[in-house]
Amino acid sequence: MRTLVLLSGMAVLLSVAACHKSNNDTNHGQLKFSVSHKVDGATVVFDTITYTNAAGNNYGIEKLQYYISNICLYQKGKLCYSFPDIVYIDASIDSLCSFSITPSSGLKTGTYDSIALMVGIDAAHNTSNYLPASLANLDMGWPDAMGGGYHFFKMEGHWLDAGTSTGYAMHIGMNGFQINAGFPCSITVASSGDPALSFSMNVNKWFSGAYTYNFATDGYFSMGDSTMMKKLSTNGATAFYSN
Amino acid sequence: MRYTLPILFACALLLAMGNSSCHKSKGNPTPADSTYTLTPDTLKVPPHFPKPVIPADNQPYKEKERLGRMLYYDTILSNDGRYCAGCHQQANGFTSMALYENAMPVLPHENLAWYSNYMWDGSQKGTLEDVMRFEVESFFNTDVSKLNNSSVYKPLFKKYFGVDNITTKEVAYALAQYLRTVVCRNSKYDRILRGEATYTPAEYAGYVVFFTEKGDCFHCHIDPVMTDNQFHNTGLDSLYPKVADQGLYNVTGSTADLGRFRTANLRNVALRPYYMHDGRFTTLLQVIDFYDTGMHKVSNLDPIMSLPYKANGLHLTDDDKTNLIAFLNTLTDSTFISDTSLSALR
User: Fold this and answer.
1) Which residues contact A77 (CB under 8 A, 6 or more apart)?
2) Is B43 on the interface with A (CB under 8 A)?
3) B213 touches chain A (CB under 8 A)
4) H or E stretch including B176?
5) Closest Cα to residue A144, out of B199, B91, B157, B102?
6) What are the residues whose beta carbons fall under 8 Å from the beta carbon of A42, sequence distance 6 or more?
């Protein structure tokens, strides 16, 4: 199980009576997550131009790295738990596609039926050198000369521009462009053991939804471009789903 | 009864022989000589760098670092007069002013503690211990019998590594110990990061070129390590007739890796006489001019090089280039190249 990129804080417990009606038992295990990366149901294969997005762009994926943070668990629409942990995901490395959270006061038993997560880092913590110095975090740094903090999301590869292989780099960062995602799920927490959730990202969802993103007309290098980052971050809110 | 004494003597003899062979080291590192206490060392880490990952079986000790330093400057490593410092010259930032070995510039030995990919084409990977094993066993083909017959090295390896028979493993481990201490961390750039210095206007203007989309150097030459230690095709060539130009492809066999080379570390870049894997450029201005207007648009050009509004070059002005060079000069660490604690022992 990979090591988390952790904040120093503890889990913020929001005790809502409705969350704990099932019983008084508390699970003190780890909450385990694993994320798969797919394109319309097919597991991502890196480095070849094999995918087509909603705009008809043929593209491949060579890099897919991002942060997940502020995971929240809900029960019947009520927020039950919020975890401040910041996790680095590299879709090309299996060990960096799973992580654990240790709720400081445990989790009440029961079933949690939806989850919210942020792709990126919230504004309060999106400052240069906030995260522990690691080569991955340094590589995700957003230069101070461009506002500082971190890249929230990096996806790079090549696409066919009128038949010519052309690079693209979808980079999202800067406050205001955090991606707030969420989806229904079923996480059953028993009185012992480690509850778990496997979920997936559909890469093509970054190019469809509220905006049909077309490399040819919208652009293929997004870093620092508010219009492009806005479209991508809006679409990305619906990119995740439970397995 | 009359056979008892001879039998007992024979048993005692056998026992003595057994014990002797038990204690004869087979070259596996054991805790150092129990009569000597090694001195733990704490590696110097530049500002905002991560802690280096050091294997559990080669944690830093001053005595082992010193032993590695001795070897680094000693022709005993080879059978033809070569030694590490013969090419990796401290005064030049631990690189060479000449081209060697297939005319590829000698890669500088600086901040290797943070690397996991080595050589221009990534042909060596892993820990410093792994790459030093390659250097000792393949590059130098070190004759360890010379070390085992040395009145200097044999007792030192016994004392610090606890071995009676020195193997290539201990030699590699000692070199790795020393190389982890070869840390560049006191350039003007580092002092600025520590709040001890400030940029001149030209240096700051160059910093902006480096760390914004104007020059976009930072995506590969990441702050503050100045290399991402990954592989990229930066459009140097459109054809790769020479094996040396094929880069990472020579390791992976994947056509996607044609022309991909490991990102150079820009620390002390201004000290080097040659740039790129084949030394084709001899000044920083030539390098910048290449990135400005000289890149070949090959099919596997790194996506980061494909800025759409820069399809015909970065459009850097002469002032941009001058300022960028001024910033690159802030990466020179004059203390590093003269630090006697890294030099040959006198």
Assistant:
1) A114
2) no
3) yes
4) helix B168-179
5) B199
6) none
- Name the residue facing B308 among A63, A165, A219 (closest C-beta): A219
Chain A residue with minimum CA distance to B234: A167
Residue from B274, B275, B278, B276 nearest B244 by CA: B278
Give pLDDT tens digits for A116-141.
Answer: 999 999 999 999 999 999 999 999 99
Which string of DSSP letters, residue by residue, matches B197-248?
A: ----HHHHHHHHHHTSTTT--TTTS-TTTS----EE--SS-S---SGGGGBT
B208–chain A Cβ distance below 8 A for any pair: yes
Nearest-by-Cβ selection for A145 from B208, B254, B306:
B208
Nearest Cα to A59, choosing from A77, A39, A88? A39
State the Cα–Cα distance between residues B228 and B18, nearest whole angstrom. 53
* A215: nearest CA partner in chain B: B308
Pairs from B113-117 (Cβ < 8 Å, separation ≥ 24)? B113/B43, B113/B52, B113/B54, B113/B179, B113/B180, B113/B183, B114/A135, B114/B49, B114/B50, B114/B52, B114/B225, B114/B229, B115/B229, B116/B229, B117/B229, B117/B230, B117/B231, B117/B262
Tell me which of B185, B219, B297, B324 to substitute to probe the interface with A (most A C-beta atoms closer than 10 Å).
B219
Q: Residues 290..319 of B with a Cβ closer than 8 Å to A: which?
A: 299-309
Q: Is the pLDDT of residue A6 over 80?
A: no
| Residue numbers in B near A220 (CB within 8 A) | 306, 308
ipTM score here? Answer: 0.87
Contacts of A63 in chain B (CB under 8 A): 303
Name which of A159, A177, A181 is nearest A168 in CA terms.
A159
Question: Quick check: A129 and B48 CB within 8 A?
Answer: yes
Q: Are B79 and B141 in contact (CB under 8 A)?
A: yes
Residue B4 has pLDDT above 60, yes or no: no
DSSP type of residue B139: I
Amino acid (one-letter) located at A164: T
Residue B9 pLDDT greater than 50, yes or no:
no
User: Which position has the token pair 């066919």?
Assistant: A160
Which 3 state secondary structure label does DSSP give A32? strand
**CB < 8 Å to A62, chain B:** 303
pLDDT in tens, B280-321: 999 999 999 999 999 999 999 999 987 776 767 788 999 999
CB contact under 8 A, B211 and A144: yes
Which residue type occupies A19?
C
A81: which 2 tokens? 């738990």
pLDDT digits (tens, 9 = 90+) for B212-247: 989 999 999 999 999 999 999 999 999 998 999 999
Shortest distance between the Cα of A17 and any Cα of chain B, in A, equals 44
